[in-house]
Design goal:
The complex is a heterodimer of chains A (776) and B (267).
Chain A: H1 2-18, E1 26-35, E2 46-49, E3 52-58, E4 64-70, E5 72-79, E6 86-92, E7 96-97, E8 100-102, H2 109-114, E9 129-133, H3 134-137, H4 149-153, E10 159-161, E11 169-171, E12 179-183, E13 186-187, E14 192-193, E15 198-199, E16 206-212, E17 226-232, E18 241-247, E19 250-260, E20 264-273, H5 276-279, H6 285-288, E21 291-306, E22 309-324, E23 328-344, E24 349-368, E25 371-393, E26 396-416, E27 425-426, E28 430-443, E29 449-463, E30 466-471, E31 477-483, E32 488-506, E33 509-520, E34 522-525, E35 536-539, E36 547-560, E37 565-582, E38 598-614, E39 619-634, E40 643-644, E41 651-660, E42 665-674, E43 678-679, E44 684-688, E45 691-695, E46 702-703, E47 707-720, E48 725-733, E49 741-748, E50 756-762, E51 767-775
Parallel strand pairs in A: 1-7, 1-8, 12-17
Antiparallel strand pairs in A: 1-4, 2-3, 2-5, 5-6, 9-16, 10-11, 12-13, 14-15, 16-17, 18-19, 18-51, 19-20, 20-21, 21-22, 22-23, 23-24, 24-25, 25-26, 26-27, 26-28, 28-29, 29-32, 30-31, 32-33, 33-36, 34-35, 36-37, 37-38, 38-39, 39-40, 39-41, 41-42, 42-47, 43-46, 44-45, 47-48, 48-51, 49-50
Chain B: E1 3-11, E2 15-28, E3 39-46, E4 53-58, E5 75-80, E6 86-88, E7 90-93, E8 96-98, E9 110-117, E10 120-127, E11 134-139, E12 150-155, E13 163-170, E14 173-182, E15 190-195, E16 207-215, H1 217-232, E17 251-265
Parallel strand pairs in B: 3-17
Antiparallel strand pairs in B: 1-2, 3-4, 4-8, 5-6, 5-9, 7-8, 9-10, 11-12, 12-15, 13-14, 13-16, 16-17
Classes of the chains: A mainly beta (776), B mainly beta (267).
């Protein structure tokens, strides 16, 4: 029944499209846009015509474009940020396939200074979208010199860092688990290495990242706050190439080359840290015998079977290992695999089929005396995706697709030794099928106005085998029902409408408006501030409802000073339903009845984001400022009144500056400032068996001290020939050594038992690093 | 200036995982509100000989000394609701109330606490659980350290839900620390648990008395939440005042509990 209804809905939705009258003698020009040197496809390149300014399309994520126009002679312009635009005279009398390879605009200093790069025009991008290429992040200084797309992204407005040594980031008031992080379409559950010091994304293997803070197109779904769509490089299909870097605590190697020139290529990218090389020098025996490292490997291969068919296979595998002496340790990691098939049905219909596997797991080992226990947990996705794009004409594009994702969660399994104080425990696995269909229409009624609207319909089916419980307020089990394998426990159906509009006021300014609803069915349980990787993922169930967010956003965008600068100012208002919080003393680990420990409520957030970027000249960079508020209302917390969410940072400010001193030297600096997170501190103390214990009058009523930090970087190119490039990168993280708190501890004064004190721990002050990068 | 520091990420289940980073720690004095004084009532009845005490104190501000003003003038009674015995306690020192007729608690009996103070009434009920006996206290003296931890050794009864608290008396002085444990994931196991002392200073030749205390669920909840707040507050996303088992709007706990103790000397 449900399926029939949705099919009917989809038909009614798409019906107007079929009625579109088509003028006679229309022909299409289609093809793929690539980089001439590396053969990497370029997504987001603009195809336009001198005869019809304002009319145009952009290449999709596989570099494919298609445009259908009346027959005639045209000057077609292909342009892409950082590349020299190409103009092709086109005599359109039949359907044409036109594949184009573009050259990067010469990055020699003189050129950079005199020509302003053709921007990928912010006037035209969807509202809420920000795209970052590796070129953009190359010179931004970061901790330990590892350039990191997720870290640099946190310097943009509306995206907030969780702070030093903490994994995760917050987008427009959403939680850290509310970001959909995709690597070649596969969900990455834990995007951090070493408790958040690095992201799992090796910049050598990444082509670009598209970030949606709002106005998500209907083909994305599953998380409330944002989408980070990260694309791996395809690999150079022209010549074999090696590059890498050797740093103080990490080294990288990247190999890529053609499988068959112009037809297929591969890329292998790996890195490993060796922090533990230094722990061996420590005097503390516990540290001395510890291991602490991570590694990750990105693999990708693609092959063009013929003009109409191309296949891609990509994979990621990463692991973190932390062990201290005497067998206490933890390891965790993600693995993903994506098999994709691009098929061009005809000049206008593009299809992609994907089979995706994604897994996150952790293992912890605890040995103490005779007590010995090993705990593991995992979440696995088996995901099928089918997307069609139909390019009717330059004014109309349709996207339609299907998404089926089977989630299997193992919340926990413990294996104990015979002498351990713990029993073996295997928690009931959770099974959920998340399926969605979507349809979306991009429509430009005039050259200045563009609408993108669509609908995503998500069904979440909770499946057996599982025991389904109901609870009373005191977390006692009221009833237990057993569902055998394959039995449907419950289905939730949620429509997710999406709407975006942009209107170009003149050649240099535009305004945009968006509304989107997102639904989330995989929930992260974590009641600690530490970024312990031992997170519990819980799918929607009979008790945990799908989380729902509605957001309205609007913005003003402009290019000025001959497009050397871009400016944007956006506002948003967001409400969230079915948000999860925890009862006091909630037991989240090893608990089959974890749902009895949860509280539910609402969230809301609003903010004003400003961004100004200088794109050309010796000095480039940006300034970003966000003013925002993020609140929660949970039954059972603060008497049910609204209170600030931990990530509520009133002011958030960042400045990034990159200065090209000469052909050899580039200097850079980043300064960030934000209001301290909301936090819960005591308002009194009292004794429990003689131990001072703290009294908390309300949740998140205090503020951590403001966070600020200056990072400095310098890159010197030591050798640059056609065959070999070498450069040194120096950086200092937190250059003026500000004490930003990592933890704040309330404790009995160890030197004076009649007093209590507050201790602040700071992780990083003036951390220098040197990396040598090479390419040949 | 910088020193290699040891950051402990502890979790109830997997214990202690550690990482070493460059970091530094300093004492800060953020401005903290002081809540109006909260009433704390703490009393026990146990299966070891009385008399038993109920203490009533007020909370103090965070930066005040760790001494809490006693509250006088309360009417305190403890009733054995199983036998019907009712004991009216008398105040022997400011805020300290003592039993008379209640000389020893009995397993499976339910005890009721009633405190009347300034027109308000605070009540609690606690049932004494089945006693669990401590086998022995031992010390792991094989490590190269000069400070040791005591270890409790005992059999958790199978098929019974048990809640425990450990406490130490070192050289005749009660140690200002407690530790809790439940058998949620350990039912029927032989338990060997290391016990932290307040100052982590158990040395050779110290005489240590370790007590294994059995409590009911609500008392355990209060104690384990209090333990988490006292020793783990920096890693809690949302620390909250422990949930008392006494109703009427106060903090503290009233426990009918079992106590099994062993004494050992660190050799």
């Amino acid at each position: 029944m449900v399926q029939n209804k949705s099919l009917l809905f989809l038909l009614t939705f798409l019906l107007p499209l079929a009625l579109w009258a088509q003028p006679k003698h229309n022909f299409s020009v289609s093809g793929t846009v690539k980089d001439v040197k590396t053969g990497e496809t370029l997504s987001g390149a603009t195809i336009g015509f001198l005869e019809h300014p304002g009319l145009g399309v952009v290449t999709n994520s596989y570099g494919f474009y298609s445009i259908t126009i009346p027959e005639g002679t045209y000057s077609m312009v292909i342009s892409f940020s950082g590349y020299a635009a190409d103009t092709i005279v086109l005599d359109l009398k039949q359907n044409i396939v036109l594949n184009k390879s573009m050259s990067a605009s010469n990055s020699q200093l003189q050129e950079v200074v005199v020509t302003s790069r053709r921007s990928n025009n912010i006037l035209k991008t969807p509202p809420g979208l920000q795209r970052i290429t590796m070129e953009d992040i190359k010179n931004v200084p970061v901790l330990f010199g590892e350039k990191d797309v997720l870290k640099t992204m946190q310097l943009l407005p509306g995206i907030k860092s969780a702070g030093d040594g903490k994994a995760g980031f917050f987008v427009r008031g959403g939680g850290a688990d509310q970001n959909l992080i995709l690597l070649d379409e596969a969900t990455v559950y834990n995007a951090s290495h070493l408790l958040g010091f690095f992201s799992v994304f090796n910049s050598d293997a990444i082509k670009d990242i598209s970030i949606y803070k709002g106005g998500m197109p209907a083909n994305y779904g599953g998380r409330l706050a944002s989408v980070e769509d990260i694309k791996m490089k395809d690999g150079n299909d022209q010549k074999f190439q090696a590059s890498g870097g050797i740093g103080l605590i990490a080294s990288r190697l990247n190999l890529e080359g053609p499988i068959v020139k112009d037809k297929g290529s591969f890329i292998i990218s790996a890195r490993r840290t060796y922090v533990d090389a230094f722990t061996g020098l420590a005097s503390d025996t516990n540290i001395k015998h510890s291991t602490l490292y991570f590694y990750d490997i990105n693999l990708k291969a693609n092959y063009k079977l013929n003009e109409k068919n191309r296949v891609f296979l990509s994979g990621y595998f990463g692991k973190d290992v932390m062990n201290i002496q005497s067998g206490n340790g933890i390891d965790w990691g993600n693995s993903t695999a994506t098999l994709r098939w691009n098929h061009i049905f005809n000049d206008r219909l593009f299809s992609n089929t994907s089979l995706i596997y994604s897994n996150y797991n952790y293992n912890t080992q605890f040995t103490s005396n005779a007590n010995n226990i090993r705990v593991s947990s995992a979440i696995t996705d088996y995901h099928f995706k089918q997307d069609f794009s139909y390019y009717l004409n330059p004014r109309n594009k349709f996207d339609i697709g299907l998404d089926v994702n089977y989630h299997v969660t193992q919340p926990g399994q413990a294996v104990a030794s015979a002498t351990s104080k713990y029993n073996n425990v295997t928690l009931q696995k959770k099974y959920a099928l998340e399926s969605a269909i979507y349809a979306s229409h991009e429509w430009s009624p005039t050259t200045k106005l563009k609408f993108t609207y669509g609908l995503r319909l998500t069904a979440l089916t909770v499946l057996g085998p599982d025991s389904v419980y109901t609870y009373d307020n005191a977390a006692n089990i009221l009833s237990t029902t057993w569902y055998s394998g394959g039995k449907i426990i419950k289905t939730y159906l949620n429509p997710e409408p999406r709407f975006a509009a942009s209107y170009q006021l003149d050649g240099n300014t535009s305004i945009k408006l968006a509304y989107d609803r997102n639904v989330q069915n995989i929930h992260l349980l974590n009641n600690s501030t530490s970024t312990s990787p031992t997170n519990v993922y819980l799918p929607t169930s009979n008790i945990v409802q799908p989380e729902i967010a509605d957001q309205v956003s609007a913005g003003y965008y402009s290019n000025f000073h001959h497009r050397a600068y871009e400016f944007s100012s956006e506002i948003y208002y967001k409400t969230m339903q079915n948000q999860i919080d925890y009862k006091n003393g909630a037991e989240l680990i090893g608990n089959n009845n974890v749902e009895s420990q949860l509280l539910f409520g609402k969230g809301r957030g609003y903010g004003w984001e400003n961004y100004i970027k200088k794109k050309s000249g010796r000095l480039t960079g940006w300034v970003s400022y966000t003013l925002s508020k993020t609140e929660r209302q949970i039954v059972g917390i603060n008497n049910g009144s609204w209170y600030p969410a931990p990530q509520d940072q009133t002011h958030n400010f960042s400045i990034v500056g990159i200065y090209q001193y000469n052909k050899k030297w580039i200097f850079s600096a980043t300064w960030v400032y934000n209001t301290g997170n909301a936090t819960t501190w005591p308002s009194a103390k009292f004794p429990v068996d003689g131990v001072p214990v703290y009294y908390y009058s309300s949740r998140n009523a205090y503020r951590l001290p403001a966070y600020h930090r200056l990072d400095l970087g310098a890159t010197v190119i030591t050798k640059k020939t056609a065959k070999y490039e070498g450069s040194w990168t120096f950086s200092i993280y937190n250059a003026y050594g500000h004490d930003n708190p990592y933890t704040i501890t309330f404790q009995k004064d160890p030197n004076n038992p009649t007093k209590t004190q507050v201790q602040q721990t700071t992780l990083f002050k003036m951390v220098p690093s040197i990396t040598y990068n090479f390419k040949f | 200036m910088k020193k290699i520091f040891f950051i402990l990420l502890s979790s109830a289940f997997f214990g202690i995982i550690a990482a070493s980073f460059f970091s530094c720690t300093k004492t800060i004095t953020p401005s903290l509100n002081t809540a109006s004084p909260q009433l704390i009532i703490q009393g026990v009845v146990s299966d070891t000989a009385g008399p038993y005490y109920v203490s009533i104190v007020n909370s103090v501000g965070f930066y005040a000394d760790n001494s809490y003003p006693g509250v006088s003038g309360a009417t305190v009674t403890i009733t054995d609701s199983t036998s019907g015995l009712r004991d009216v306690l008398t105040e022997t020192a400011t805020g300290l109330y003592v039993t008379h007729s209640l000389v020893q608690g009995i397993y499976a009996h339910t005890y009721l606490l009633n405190v009347s103070l300034n027109g308000k009434t605070y009540t609690a009920s606690s049932t004494m659980p089945q006693p669990v006996l401590l086998d022995s206290v031992s010390f792991d003296t094989t490590s190269d350290s000069k400070r040791f931890r005591a270890q409790a050794n005992y059999q958790d009864p199978k098929g019974v839900v048990n809640f425990y608290k450990y406490s130490l008396v070192i050289n005749g002085v009660a140690d200002a620390r407690f530790q809790t444990f439940e058998d949620r994931l350990s039912d029927g196991r032989y338990i060997q648990d290391k016990i932290d002392a307040d100052t982590s200073e158990i040395k050779r030749n110290d005489v240590v008395r370790l007590s294994l205390v059995g409590t009911d669920k609500k008392v355990y909840t209060y104690l384990s939440e209090a333990e988490n707040i006292a020793y783990n507050n920096s890693s809690l996303a949302a620390p909250a005042t422990p949930t008392s088992n006494i109703s009427g709007g106060c903090l503290g706990y009233f426990s009918a509990q079992t106590v099994s103790s062993k004494t050992g000397t660190v050799k």
